[in-house]
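Fresh eyes needed here. Have a critical look at this protein's tokenised backbone.
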Amino acid sequence: MPMPLANQFAYLFLLAIPVACVAWTITHEEVLREPREWCKRRSNDCRRLSARKFFYLFTCEYCFSHYVALFFLLIARFQLLYTGWRGYLIGFFALVWVANVYMSFFNRLRLDIKHENVEIAIDQTKEDSNR
């Protein structure tokens, strides 16, 4: 028996949170900077196209989110709208899309915070110079 549509959408929006978290952390956060930089160099330096594309996956949150979404989709056995392979396929692309929307919001929030911090630092410097 298929899950009610409201529950499916709740699962979609909740399941996209760990997908976005894992994809963002691996492709952006400082804790994994060295392996990511190594992958970036390899994606530029490898001779074989397949090797370049493989290493590029770890530097692009959009690309990497597909693999993370697939992993979580299989673990959760999440299907959207239909049962069977069609539900997995639709669920997969919906999950990738929602996770990337979350990552876009998070990126925008971080940029806004950084901008505010720069403005505060400039204001403090002006105040210090006026004293």
Remarks:
- The first helix runs from residue 5 to 28.
- DSSP finds five helices and no strands in the chain.
- The helical segments are 5-28, 33-45, 49-56, 61-76, 85-130.
